[in-house]
Amino acid sequence: MSKVMMATVIGIVLVLASGCADMSSTQQRTLSGAAIDTAAGYALGAMTGMSKGTGMALGAAAGAAGGYVYDKYKE
Prior knowledge:
Largest sheet: none
Number of domains: 1
Shape: flat
Number of helices: 3
Distance between the termini: 42 Å
């Protein structure tokens, strides 16, 4: 089941990443941060025994915040 979930996450990330052409820099960095950290959160949840969904949610939130803060810092 975990391979199916990981393939789904990767598919969603690829679909979302393909729609970034009309986004601002801040939106692109926020989305890419969330997408990357969602995958990292999934892996962390799997390794620690925590719920994978919880890991994905925490990773997405941290990534979105990090991407936003980084873009504002670069401006």
